[in-house]
Design brief:
The complex is a heterodimer of chains A (219) and B (53). Chain A is an alpha/beta fold and 219 residues long. Chain A contains 4 helices and 13 strands. By secondary structure, chain B is mostly beta strands. In chain B, strands 1-2 form a two-stranded parallel ribbon. Classes of the chains: A alpha/beta (219), B mainly beta (53).
Chain lengths: 219, 53
């Protein structure tokens, strides 16, 4: 078995790659954690409308230091700024946008993604864990497309892309694409199609790090 | 209604530049609206009013 040396992507590089696939005019929800980095990489020549569960539409991240408005935060409790044309609304309307299929793309983190697109990202089942599912379940089933941004393996070297979930499910059959620090995978009826891999990565090595069968679609 | 429909066409008498609508005052965010058609209000249509617009 060959073990070539490959370049693992940084979180910023995964975010930058995912941002490329967000089209002009899209309404997008970026999940708490890794996915929020995508906002920095949305190019200025695209109109992308960010949605946040707590009731914001059309905002951008990070005001300059010292210019934060303590009453203007997104669902991840980060200070944001509103764009011209932005709007505020209450949670009911916000979740109607999510559950009603009005969000074009949501990008979520993951503990696990199964081969059929099942997603686990709200609990590891630990007994004392805070049940903080947030809006993930609503986004997972409501968004037109669900992208997942995640490291390919856990800190202890276990695969996060698995044949079946072992953690509590967030949504079933909902993930469309997975961006990891090693590859990009389209989740389809035919299976997990690997469309891109990092430099130096061989398909066999990638398969070894994955807990479900992959299909090489890089040609 | 806009939330419930697949397609919403908003008939408006006036359009304004981005930033002119206070975010707090927006009742129907643009995510629910697919088309905007501007139509003059009836009182300024020719023949319906006895005063010029």
């Amino acid at each position: 078995m060959s073990h070539t040396s490959y370049t693992v992507l940084t979180r910023d590089q995964i975010a930058e790659r995912a941002a490329q696939d967000i089209p002009d005019g899209a309404y997008v929800n970026l999940g708490i954690g890794l996915p929020t980095k995508i906002a920095q990489y949305l190019s200025n020549d695209k109109d992308v409308f960010l949605h946040s569960e707590n009731g914001l539409l059309a905002f951008r991240p990070s005001p300059a230091k010292g210019e934060e408005d303590p009453e203007l935060i997104n669902a991840g409790k980060e200070y944001v700024t509103m764009l011209d044309g932005g709007s505020y609304f209450h949670h009911g309307d916000s979740f109607a946008m999510m559950r009603g299929g009005h969000i074009d793309i949501c990008v979520l983190g993951a503990f696990q993604v199964a081969a059929n697109g099942d997603l686990a990202n709200w609990s590891t089942g630990a007994e004392d864990a805070i049940p903080a599912v947030g809006g993930a379940m609503d986004l997972a089933v409501g968004a037109k497309k669900v992208f997942v941004m995640t490291n390919h393996i856990t800190k202890t070297g276990d695969p996060k892309i698995v044949s079946e979930l072992t953690y509590p499910v967030t949504g079933k059959n909902c993930v469309d694409r997975i961006y990891t620090d090693l590859c990009v995978i389209d989740v389809t009826d035919k299976g997990l199609l690997v469309t891109e891999m990092v430099d130096g990565m061989s398909f066999l090595d990638l398969q070894e790090l994955t807990g479900a069968m992959l299909i090489d679609a890089t040609q | 209604m806009a939330m419930a429909a697949d397609v919403t066409i908003a008939q408006v008498s006036q359009t304004v530049d981005l930033g002119e609508l206070d975010p707090e005052h927006v009742i129907t965010p643009g995510i629910f609206v697919q088309h905007v058609v501007q139509v003059q209000p009836a009182s300024t249509s020719t023949g319906l009013s006895d005063t010029a617009a």
